[in-house]
Amino acid sequence: MTKREQVVAEDMKNQQPAQETEKEVQSIAQARVAYEQLIEEIRGYSRQARELREQAAELQQSGRTDFQVRDR
Fold first, then answer.
1. The dihedral of CA 39, 40, 41, 42: what is its sign?
2. What pLDDT is stored for residue 72 in this prediction?
3. pTM summary value
4. Coiled coil: which residue ranges (predicted)?
5. Eight-state DSSP code of residue 63
């Protein structure tokens, strides 16, 4: 094997770990985005639940029995 072939072979070996690391970094970034989206969805459900609890409390305090929920 010539010196040039050795250098090329060495470069190829060095590129593989870098490519694997980049794939791992991309995977982590994608997981982070998915996590953030789930957290936002959960926050939305939490807000909705809080609003419904507030509406239920208002209905109980008002003594209304028809339970017509107000429009947002």
1. positive
2. 53
3. 0.58
4. 28-62
5. T
- Residue 43 exposure: Cα atoms within 13 Å on the Cβ side: 6
Residue 18 placed within a domain: no
Q: Residue 51: CA atoms inside 13 Å, Cβ hemisphere, count?
A: 10
55-61-65-69 Cα dihedral, nearest 10 degrees: -20
pLDDT digits (tens, 9 = 90+) for 36-53: 999 999 999 999 999 999
Domain count, the chain: 1
Task: Report how far residue 13's alpha carbon sits from residue 5's, in angstroms, rounded to the nearest whole number.
Answer: 12
**pLDDT tens, residue by residue, 11-24:** 777 777 778 888 99
pLDDT-derived band at 69 (thresholds 50, 70, 90) equals: low
Domain holding 35, by residue range, is: 24-60
Q: What's residue 41's pLDDT?
A: 98
Residue 8 domain-assigned?
no
Question: Is residue 28 in some structural domain?
Answer: yes
